[in-house]
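Reading a protein record of the kind used here takes little practice once its layout is understood. Each number in the token line that follows is a code from a learned vocabulary of backbone shapes. One such record is shown here in full, so that the layout can be seen directly:
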Amino acid sequence: MSPSSLGPALVALGAKVKLVSPREPRGGGGEKFFVTPMNESSREIALMPNELLTEIVIPHEGTKNATYEVRQKEALDWPLATASVALK
């Protein structure tokens, strides 16, 4: 899963992303957009060169959700662990 703080919450909520590029628009579930970097030069999102994220669609049919992060310190730092849940 993604090291992003926003990624786990959007995946738990079933969010869909929409991307545009000079070639063609594409989209899909958040679980395919927020990814784990495989090496030092890769990113935590599956955004290709010349693409823009234009929309995030979050279903909102009465879902309760929560996200919990564990951090080593209070400052702006990456969480050590993040957990998100969505219940219908």
DSSP finds two helices and five strands in the chain. The mean pLDDT is 85.
